[in-house]
Amino acid sequence: MSSLAPIRPEEMLRRAHAVGNYYGFVPFSALTAQARDRRPAREPYPKELAVSELDPLAQTVAAFLKHVRDAGITPSVRQPLFAWHTNVTVGRPAPKQAVVQFHAIGAPHAIADAVLMRAVRAFIADTLKTEPTLHVNSTGDRETRARYARELDHYLRRSGAKLGEDCLSCAKRDILAAAETPISQLYREDTPASTDHLSEASRKHFENVLEFLEETETSYALAPELTSRANAWTETCFEIRAHGERMAWGARHHELATPFFNAALPSVAAIVRFSVPRGVVPAVREPGKPKAVFLHIGEEAKRTSVRLAEDLRRTRLPIMQMIGIESLTEQMRIAEALKPPYYILMGRKEALEGTVILRERATHTETVIPLENLAVSLKAVI
User: Fold this and answer.
1) Does 158 score more than 60 pLDDT?
2) Is residue 343 within 8 Å of 361, Cβ to Cβ?
3) Are residues 182 and 111 in the same domain?
4) Nearby residues of 179 by Cβ (< 8 Å), 6 or more positions away
5) What 3-state DSSP class applies to 359?
């Protein structure tokens, strides 16, 4: 049972809205409101997906993917969906446990993993008023997982005497779960590491995730004990801890997302859980439309904008950005629907020079602003 004090659900919702704006995750409730008129009839889960055999976290993600499909929303690699969702509803009794999910559906590149980690960590930090820790590992693709499972099996057979019957019994049910048992953790230095068996593609993806975390000054710890056991999870997996407890778990889930949309759909998700007091959830004042949308072009601009996100969020400026969406065309499509008075533009040139361009949408008037004065200058205008 958690030792953390219950979190007021309205406070949790406020934090989710704020973090979502600055990292580019829209509330799913807003998307379903927009799609209400074109919503198709609800369909069952895909036949190829054995929901009852999924682990509880995968079942939670599968239920969300079904909500997305049933709402008539069709994310793709060209038009990925970055969204957050919760089981807490204003005006209704709070659930026994509050769940907040962050999703990047149709996002194949490492930047999506890293941005999602940053957003979830910021959300937990704000909600708990503490500094959580990020722990990262990779169990790779299907090829990697099969190779790693064979290596684990050989290790357990060789080391059965010291690991004991409980660990061996666990291995018969789930070979990857056996690597997480307490007795196995005592011999962590001897236990095979999943990262030693990554395929070339998986190794490159994991290196890119870690590189993005480092270049955006995101502290993390490698955690070889983390294994995404169920077949639903692949590649990067991570958890975020606070006060000695796991507050969030996340991983990629390509094979889980694809059947819902009948197309290859590389995706990553994170699930956060809080205890909340019972009672009806009071109303929450949601952020209004942003007065400026921050658009990024290129890797340098993305990395710089990630580092800026926390500073901008602390100023409470009404800004939205879509860091995980790489296509400028897609960013512009979303921005145009919002019709903000201003755009903030940063490309490779601006990132290297330490500037942004503030463009007034109505007149196309542009002003160059140094990053060191960004918050002050934007406050004076927007």
Assistant:
1) yes
2) yes
3) no
4) 152, 191, 225, 227
5) strand
Q: What is the pLDDT of residues 300-340, one digit of tens each?
A: 898 888 888 888 888 888 888 888 888 888 899 888 888 99
Q: How confident is the model at residue 177 (pLDDT cuts 50, 70, 90)?
A: low
Asked whether residue 237 falls in the same domain as residue 311, the answer is no
Q: Examine the domain organization and report whether 164 and 228 are in the same domain.
A: no
pTM of the model: 0.87
Look at residue 213 and tell me if it is in a domain.
Answer: no
How far is residue 19's CA from residue 120's CA, in Å, rounded to a whole number?
A: 8
Q: Are 72 and 38 in contact (CB under 8 A)?
A: yes
- CB 239 within 8 Å of CB 269: no
Split into its structural domains, the chain has a count of 3
What are the residues whose beta carbons fall under 8 Å from the beta carbon of 300, sequence distance 6 or more?
Answer: 348, 351, 352
Contact 239, 246 (CB under 8 A): yes
What percent of the chain has pLDDT above 70?
88
Range of the domain at 146: 142-195
Which SS3 state, helix, strand or coil, does residue 221 take? strand
The separation between the first and the last C-alpha atoms of the chain, rounded to the nearest angstrom, is 46
Q: Do 296 and 329 lie in a common domain? A: yes
Average pLDDT score, the chain: 86
